[in-house]
Amino acid sequence: GTGGRAAVLLSGGIDSPVAGYMIAKRGVEIECIHFFSYPYTSELAKEKVLELAHIMTKFCGRMTVDIVGFTEIQEAIRDHCREEYFTIIMRRFMMRIAEAIGRDHGAKCLVTGENLGQVASQTMDAMAVTGAVTDLPVLRPLIGMDKEEIVRIARHIGTFDTSILPYEDCCTVFTPKHPKTKPVLAQVEAEEQKLDVEGLIARAIANTEKTQIRYYEDEMVSLSALSGITSQLHDALRERVWLKSGAYLIIQPTEALTVIDVNTGKNIAKKESRNENPNGSYRAVRMFVRIFP
Q1: Would the pLDDT of 271 be above 50?
Q2: Which among 39, 114, 232, 280 counts the fewest CB atoms within 10 Å?
Q3: How far apart are CA 40 and CA 221, in angstroms?
Q4: What is the mean pLDDT of residues 154-160?
Q5: Could you tell me the pLDDT band of residue 265, with boundaries at 50, 70 and 90?
Q6: Cβ atoms of residues 89 and 121 within 8 Å
Q7: pTM for the whole thing?
Q8: Is residue 278 reached through a cis peptide bond, with omega within 30 degrees of 0 on the bond before it?
C-alpha cells in the first residue's frame, strides 16, 4: 500500500476488524495477528477470526493471519501475578509479540481496536502502560468513536454478523474481577519480574501458525449453490411445525426462552430482538462445514 504496512491485532470482536478497515482505506497494507488460547477458546473461535479476515480482504486485499498460541502465557500470568494486573500484563505480552511479528512482515506500526474508556484496559493510564513495551507507533483509529458508530461501520463492511457469533477469544480468559484502571508502570513491571518474559515470548512466536487469506471473491461460494442447503435452512427455521396429531409447534429464535401457550399457540413471553438478517446463521454454517467436512 502507498501508506506503508501495518500489523493489526485482530480479535473476534466488533472493533478490531473495523480498525483494520479504517487504516486500510488510508492506503495501508495490513497483516493480522490473532492470539489463540486453546483449550480455553475453541477451534470455532479461530475459524471466526479467519472468516473476519476473509471478509476484510474485500477492502485490503490478500493478507497473512499469524495465529499465536497464547495459552502458556496466560496460564503463567494467572499462576504468578496479582489478579488485578492480569489484563494489563496480558496486553503488554500481546504488544511485544505483535511488534516482533510485525517487524518480520515489514510493518511500521501496530493497529488496535481500542476505544477510550470502553473497558478497563482502555483507559488513558492503561493504554500508556500497555504501549510502553513497543517502539513501533500504535495507531488506534476508533479511539474517540461511540459504539454505535463502530457498529454502523461493521455492518457496512459486512463483519458485524460474524463478530457477534458466540465464540469468545482469549481476552475473556482469566478476566479479573477488579482490574486496574489506573495502573502504575513501575508496579506492572514489578509483577512481570515474576515471569520468564523473554522465554514465554520466544516460545509463543516459535509456535505461531501462519494462514494465508486469499482475496474475498476467490473463495466466495454462494450457499444457494450448495446442494439444497438454503431450502433446508428455511425449512429448519420456519416458525410453525405441524405434527401428525394436527397440532403444531411454534419455533421463534430469540435471545431468551420462548414460552408458547399450548391452547392458543401464541408466544406469551416478552419479545426479544430477532435475527432478521440470516447472514450470521449462514456464516456459522460455513464455519461448521470447514471444520467438519
Answers
A1: no
A2: 39
A3: 31
A4: 95
A5: low
A6: no
A7: 0.74
A8: no
